[in-house]
Amino acid sequence: MNDAGTIVELRRGVRIDRGRTPLLAVDQLSLEFRTRSGIVRALENISFDLKRGETMALVGESGSGKSVTAYAIMGINDEAARVTGGSIVFGGLDLLSADRKTLDEIRGRELAIIFQNPRVALNPIRPIGQQIADVLLRHGNVTAREAPDRAIEMLAKVRIPDPKRRAAAYPFELSGGMCQRVMIALALACEPALLIADEPTTGLDITTQAVIMDLVAELAASQHMATLLITHDLGLASEYCDRIAVMHAGHIVEIARTADLFANPRHPYTAKLIAATPGGVDRLDALTSITGNLPDLRRNNLPPCRYSERCERRAADCAEPPLPRRALSDGHVLFCQHPLPEAP
Amino acid sequence: MNQILRHARYVLGENPVTAASFGMFALFIIAAILGPTIAPYDPLASNTAQALAGPSPAHWFGTDQLGRDIFSRIIAATRLDMGIALSSVALAFGVGTIAGLAAGYRGGWLDRVVGRIVDTIMAFPLFVLAMGIVAALGNNIENIIYATAIINLPIYARLARAEANVRREAGFVEAARLCGNSETRIVLTQLFPNVMPLMMVQISLTLGYAILNAAGLSFIGLGVRPPTPEWGIMVAEGASNIISGEWWVALFPGLVLMAAVFCFNLMGDGLRDIVDPRRRT
Amino acid sequence: MSDAEPLLDVAGLRKLYPVGARDWRGAAASRLHAVDGVSLTIGRGETVGLVGESGCGKSTLVRLLTRLIDPSDGTIRFDGADVGTVPARRFGRVPQRAQIQMVFQDATDSLNPRFTAGRSIADPLMRLRGLSGAALRARIEEAARLTGLPPELLTRFPHQLSGGQKARVGIARAIAVEPKLLILDEPTSALDVSVQVVILQLLEDLKRRLNLSYLFVSHDLNVVRLLCDRILVMYLGRIVESGRAAEIFRAPAHPYTKALLSAVPTPGVSSRERRIALPGEPRSPVDPDPTICALYGRCPKGTERCRSEAPALREIAPGRYAACHFPYEGAVSSEPRLAVAGSR
């Protein structure tokens, strides 16, 4: 890590500017999947920024495209995926046009990801200490002699008790929460500039979830690392993120600072999502469901606003392109023809 | 039932190779059923004047050393070979699958006993074991069927046991208990259908082995005896004639054998697609 | 709470599993106390929530109550009859089998992939009610109607159904035989938020219409708060707190409950300041020392008394029970405070 300047030089002439603002710029990203039953227009015109040290959540239900977006940034989407437009610029480097070797250099080093279901994401036949050492060695941060000790340091950093002994353990010997800590250790070993967390606590107990997320938040703060949290849980997003982007059917519908989003949701879908979250209401009949279904993304007559067919506020001009982008105060961005009125 | 037929039509429509193999199988079945009635000549009638005549418009596949029409004998043999294959596979599948499911589901001593039996069978080179069984029990068609069934049983038992072991913990098994199903009923009505798609491919492969096994046994003199027409015997009888240049006596039965095995293997995938509901969209 | 006999009355329930090395007779040296002396009641028309984290014994308790496994000790009385003594493998033939049913967590896993939805719903009707032919079809269609499942979906296979539809099939199967007690094991945890709303409201509606009692097992405390009349908190095989849901959420008595509630994320409100993180991991359930409190060592309180005398579940306020020598004040003094305050 280079504190004096912000530019990091990796091998093969790859350079990442950690101090660049914004650190991550996704601009008009469109992506489709070619499948046997048709072309699935998974993402359309996704745009958002992330600054150094900021935490942001991509929130949406299943099928919203949040994981696809995360994987597109990492470049680990399925073979059937094809980017049809837009750009992803990370630290000054265009990720979509970078070749495989360049991506290999930055992944794990400046750009890291942790997944859902940690036990499955770890190599089952390799002790966890060695897996961490592997990452350190790959990115040339340490020599082979230092690697085991640095791995134990990382385990201590993620608060695994008795790290020296545990370094020799295999993933199946650890609980789900511990495996997730190991995955965090793997991801953070080289102190990346950006961490993507894809549903990192689904399947974990409530208390473990809190501890894991607190740990990520603490490490992110101390390393001034940007975090992109992918989740379906609005409560989790509101707890840990500065900003939230709400996704629906491959579109971003609203981006706002967390407090603003809950105090003043302007997109009808956002309001409905909040009203459907059990944590936010006091009575069961105060919960409202979201009418309609997700549109079939294989259609080629999808309206410009993919929520319009389910929306109670739909008007005639919702079917006419283009979908307007409204920039409200203070980073609050909205994609809607007839937004909800401002909350008093 | 309608759904299955409709789905079958869809699968066959999608995949011409599979459709072709089903067509070939249908031909074999027709030949087996109609047998000697559609053969141009009596398969057992010998006509030494016409012995070892090459393929000609009168005798499409030529004649053998006793002057019998090879084409007719091949058709007549279809009934026997298909019969042996289908019955031995049915036996291996039926007994093996039930034993395997029960062993995998209940575990304990049943699992150990079935496991040992299967291991014992598999410890022998299978063809040698078949030979031994037929030689010991007697040289007739029934024993060929039993022998073939026994040597093919282990694979079904193992597949079924593995599936049952995995599915034993599945939610729907517990749900079935809540619905008042007894353990036996769970194995038969809940687990068995889930194992079927896997078995379909295996059945088609085993059909091929079974025919080859029967033919092999006849080739070495066990099993079917002359003058009964059977593809394996016909190849054996024609083997010595190859040197003297009468290639057709062994070749045509051999080709038909090959075609049958080929056809069964190709059918396997198609059958699995038809049977497995997950392949339905 | 009515004075009539409760629908389900469980006393001193224990389930022990032999673990470790066996001696020559097959007896094991140690025993795992999966359920360690649980007593609870469920009244008619009541929804009782069961919360606890992984390893607390929830799933074992559920299996005992649904009589899929046999208890090692204790009694289970259902609707006045003793159901604990009939062995599990014979329970399928007892009339109470139809009266205690369960809705499973993962609807995909709990439906036979080779059965159509209709056939799955038919299963209990055929086995427990002996229905067939037209009567069977009529009852299946009625169960489908009650759960909002369109009849044309009855011929579909599970992989052709959405998550919400599969959940409905699971519920339809459970209510088809008109049970009195329905045990719901995390029925909505695998569903999207908007689908969850619909299913939860359906469950509430069915409870009223069919006069059911629910045991609602969940790790999502927000959902439990909305749905349940009373809550049981489970830890290390024991019930550590029980009482009315609203009261427990307002003022938990047991330190474990307090820690659990402090970890629940609430949209729009940060809980990080009030987070109580219990250090360490739960103690081993193998041969637990009966004289030590289950939480000792992790508990923020923890005195000599906690180490020498395991607290029993006792009534600390009307209808409130806690297994703690030093329950939190707010819970204990709930009744007197109302009398003293006088004004609102």
| Percent range of helical residues of chain A | 25-40%
Radius of gyration of chain C: 21 Å
> Please, what is the average pLDDT of chain C?
87
Give helix and strand order of chain C, one letter per element, not per position: EEEHEEEHHHHEHEHEEHHHEEHH
Given the structure, what is the number of helices of chain C?
12
Strand content of chain A: 15-25%
Largest interface: A-C, 41 and 39 residues
Largest sheet of chain C: 8 strands, mixed
Number of helices of chain A: 11
Q: What is the general shape of chain A?
A: globular
Ends distance of chain A: 47 Å
Instruction: Assign the structural class of chain A, choosing from mainly alpha, mainly beta, alpha/beta, alpha+beta, or little secondary structure.
Output: alpha/beta
Task: Give the DSSP E fraction of chain C (strand runs of 2 or more residues).
Answer: 15-25%
Unreliable spans of chain C: 334-344
Strand line-up of the largest beta sheet of chain C: 6-7-8-3-9-10-12-11
Low-pLDDT residue spans of chain A: none
Describe what you observe in this structure.
The complex is a heterotrimer of chains A (344), B (281) and C (344). Chain A has 344 residues and is an alpha/beta fold. Chain A has a single domain (7-110, 190-335), classed as P-loop containing nucleotide triphosphate hydrolases (Rossmann fold). Chain A has helices spanning 66-74, 100-106, 118-121, 128-138, 147-157, 163-166, 176-188, 206-223, 234-240, 258-263, 268-275; strands at residues 7-9, 15-17, 24-35, 38-50, 55-59, 81-90, 93-94, 111-114, 194-198, 226-231, 243-248, 251-257, 325-327, 333-335. Chain A has an 8-stranded mixed β-sheet, sandwiched between helices. In chain A, strands 4-3-6-7 form a 4-stranded antiparallel β-sheet, covered by helices on one side. A two-stranded antiparallel sheet of chain A has the order 1-2. Chain B is mainly α. Chain B is globular. Chain B starts with a helix and ends in a 6-residue tail after the last helix. In chain B, 47% of the residues are buried. Chain C has a domain at 234-344. Chain C has 12 helices and 12 strands. Chain C has helices at 58-65, 107-110, 117-128, 133-146, 163-175, 193-210, 221-227, 245-250, 255-262, 304-308, 329-332, 334-341, and strands spanning 8-22, 28-42, 47-51, 73-78, 81-82, 100-103, 181-185, 213-217, 230-235, 238-244, 314-317, 320-322. An 8-stranded mixed β-sheet of chain C has the order 6-7-8-3-9-10-12-11, with helices on both faces. Chain C has a 4-stranded antiparallel β-sheet with strand order 2-1-4-5. Residues 334-344 of chain C have low confidence and may be disordered. The interface between A and C is large, with 41 and 39 residues.
